[in-house]
Amino acid sequence: MARSAQAPGVVVMIRPHHFSPNPQTAPDNAFQQTAAASCPSAMASRAYDEVTRAATTLREHGIDVRIFEDEGRRTPDSVFPNNWFSTHSGGRIAIYPMYPHNRRHERRADIIAMLKGEFRVRELVDYSGLEQDGIFLEGTGAMVLDHVERVAYAVQSNRTHPLALERFCSHFNYEPMLFQAMDAGGKAVYHTNVLMCIASEFVMIGLELIRDPCQRAAVRRRIEASGRLLIELSATQIANFAANAIELQAREGAVLALSVRALASLTPEQLGLLERSVTPLPLDVATIELAGGSVRCMLAGIHLSPR
Fold first, then answer.
1. Residue 261's pLDDT is what?
2. How much of the chain is in helix, strand and coil states, percent to nearest 5?
3. Does residue 307 belong to any structural domain of this protein?
4. Structural domain harbouring 146
5. What is the pLDDT of residue 1?
6. Is there a domain that residue 147 lies in?
7. 190-208: pLDDT as tens digits
């Protein structure tokens, strides 16, 4: 499998018409900010514009962006579609069980229908029924997938249950690597994709948030065994969404889509290492980041073959 398997050239995005930080996710998402002083309609308008501009920028670089509108009011986190579905080479789609009740409404038949109509899909594996048993696995937020080495890195949290992880890895042929990670306040990192980013040639990760030295060493060894360059991020950089990035196949080569805030937090030395294999592509999503996610969360990568 070529290393380019890590970097999709097609993404799905959701443009929310009534964006707001989700009160149901605030208790365990330390990245989320309450914005009580903001006018809700103004915030929603800014988020709508941020998605529009981000999609335009990606398209200008040759990335195929499929935008779906969310005109409803019951799905405040719909801008983050990577949590409820993922796609995989060989024509497979997974649908995931979501921890917050209102996020379960984000699953959309029209998106699955588009994927089936325009890409080669042979199997859909639906784990959403696990919600009835209190078992959750929020897609490529809960897991950061190494599509080349077939490893699923996952921080255990309310959003990532070991049983669901094992089931996914068994069905999709990944090796599970489950570990604990906590922020400076001692709270479990809610999603793995705010802790680490796996690209074709490098991995960015906040290893210092993995408090257990044995687990930290095991994660380091597994990354180094992949042959990728390991770029360590500080807790401050993690808090600025530096790891919430995704490598994409653009017209002129690989780009790393990340937020303006994330890019600003990186050191010149780190940027130099990244630029050996990717061109950073910063997107201004400051309003959306109030909800506790950033660019990686906004982009559901499509790893399917076109019809």
1. 98
2. 35, 25, 40
3. no
4. 3-301
5. 34
6. yes
7. 899 999 999 999 999 999 9
Residues linked to residue 119 through DSSP beta bridges, in sequence order: 306
Question: Which pair of tokens denotes residue 19?
Answer: 């964006």
Across the range 11-36, mean pLDDT stands at 75
* Six-digit token string for 74: 């019951």
> Does residue 306 form part of some domain?
no
- How far apart are alpha carbons 82 and 84 in whole angstroms? 6
pLDDT, position 3: 44
How many residues are listed for the chain in this entry? 307
Closest CA to 136 of 104, 93, 180: 104
Express each pLDDT in 240-289 by its tens digit: 999 999 999 999 999 999 999 999 999 999 999 999 999 999 999 999 99
Find, among 13, 85, 3, 63, the residue nearest to 250 by Cα: 63
How would residue 55 be classed by pLDDT, with cut points 50, 70 and 90? Answer: very high
Q: Hey, what are 296's tokens?
A: 């990686």
What is the tally of structural domains in the chain? 1
- The three-state (H, E, C) secondary structure of 86-120, written as one string: EEECCCEEEECCCCCHHHHHHCCHHHHHHHHHHEC
Bridge partners for 196 per DSSP: 205
- C-alpha 188/C-alpha 268 separation (Å) is 29
Q: How far from 146 is each of 169, 187, 199, 203, 282, CA to CA, in Å?
A: 12, 25, 8, 10, 23
Q: Quick check: 141 and 174 in contact, CB under 8 A?
A: no
Q: Domain with 68 in it: what CATH number?
A: 3.75.10.10
Closest by CA to 157, choosing from 286, 292, 29, is 29
d(CA 40, CA 45): 9
For the chain, the distance separating the N- and C-terminal CA atoms, rounded to the nearest angstrom, is 20
